[in-house]
Amino acid sequence: MCLEELVNVILLEDMEVECKSRLNREDTLGWLKTIAGFSNAQGGCLYIGVEDKTNKLIGFDRIEADNERNYFNNIINEHIVPRPNLSISFLPYKVREKERFIIQIHVKESRIKPVLCKYKGVPSIFIRRDGFTNGASYEEIIDMSVKSKNTQYDIQFSDQLYDPANFTTLQAFYAQNNQGKELPEKALRSMGFFNEEGYLANGALLFSDTYDGKKTSVQCSVFSGFSKGSNRIVTVNRFEGNLMDSVHYMLEFVEQRMNHTMIKEENHRKNIDAFPSRALFEAVINAIAHRNYYLDGTQIQVDLFRDRLEISSPGSFYQGEQLAKTYDLSSIISKRRNELIASVLVLCNAMEAAGTGFDKIMLEYRDANRKHRPYIFSSSDDFTIVLPDLTYSEGIVDDATPRLSFVPVENGTRYDQKVLEFCFYRTHKISEIAKFLGISDSTYFRKNVIGNLERQNYLIGSKLGRAKYFRTNPEMVALE
Q: Domain of life here (predicted)?
């Protein structure tokens, strides 16, 4: 008998479900982190007495089930803080007229985050993502704390006073987008740009002429080919300044370097820019508006490739799901991470209150073919908008995995074929490869799979900043 028959729904180990035949007394961390991970994510269910690969019921008799529940409660109380919001129930079934029980533990998302797992005196923070429980990233920990307090960075007040003479760049930007009108100070005050005592909000500081912090850092790069790591970096420029200057810098960087072409129509010639100006503007503004300004040491990344432009902003979608590659931009509902910054941009007519920026990007690409469709994706650390180069006739290079043949790898694994195919057209980080395979980014995987392929020259590794990327060595494989 399987679990699906007992609970009457189809269950697989995924984001919200995990099964254990028994609680491991020798490795309590293995299941403790699952409970903590559920609490720090969106909650989930742990079934005990169920084989984890097949969902086959193993179960307990009544006394065993009671003992297992008591053991679970004792270990949770000892190692997880604050105690997760969970409920425990016994699910009965019969085998040859004998009553058996499955333990169902329903864990709710914690209101107080992050939930810590203390093991051998070391506190750790875990989170459930993509069907696995792993250590939370810096971005995820910050997000947990912020959501727990329900406080956005930009609306908190600083110790600096408002002086209109220090916002000439913002005033000029407003006039440029509002037929030369003056920026209304009353509107700024009503949206919380500064309070009754005249103190500026954190978000307002980022618009000041003299802002010289790192919250607004931007890095713009040009790559000679189709991916990072596998091709020469032509240009890397960095910029720090106020938000309006950041917008101008990113726009000028791309506009000065992008390609242009011309096509003949019936009665005239039509000029085509690699990236439509309105789509480029909307992508840049979106990155500014939804950036996670709590994260220090990060930057908006503008990467210009041979076939596309990628604009990545620190922080996943605010209070939203991580997204795989998504072409239907109009279906994405983006919640505001920075209420004040977004309000200022709306006031300046740089973005709309209804949040239709993605729709405008799609409109600019409405006549493009299938290989020139813009798309968006996000991870736990950032979100990225991709604009295809309209002057590159082949469109975005197809990254579908090819079929390869090669001499079997010495001490190889069952993952070798898929890894080499996945990394043939594009370079990838180990975490991306593990996600593609649907397995954990474990030490074993790094050493015995990726490390073995690299040692034997099937994979070529290269570093970009702190990250290491891998590509398949074309001399070791052949396309079928």
A: Bacteria
Q: Which residue type sits at 50? A: V
Instruction: Say how many C-beta atoms besides its own lie within 10 A of residue 178's C-beta.
Output: 14
Can you identify the CATH homologous superfamily of domain 3-136? Schlafen, AAA domain (3.30.950.30)
Cα gap 252→264, rounded to integer Å: 28
Topology of domain 404-479 in CATH is Arc Repressor Mutant, subunit A (1.10.10)
- The answer to whether residues 427 and 469 touch, using CB atoms and an 8 Å cutoff, is yes
* Sign of the alpha-carbon torsion through 361, 362, 368, 373: positive
Question: Per residue in 140-173, pLDDT tens?
Answer: 887 787 767 657 789 889 989 999 999 999 999 9
Say if residues 329 and 363 touch (Cβ distance below 8 Å).
Answer: no
In this prediction, residue 13 carries a pLDDT of 46
H or E segment to which residue 459 belongs: strand 459-464
Residues contacting 78, CB < 8 A, separation 6+: none
pTM, whole model, 2 decimals? Answer: 0.63
| DSSP letter (8 states) at residue 227 | S
Write the pLDDT tens digit of every residue in 321-359: 556 678 877 777 667 789 999 999 999 999 876 666 788
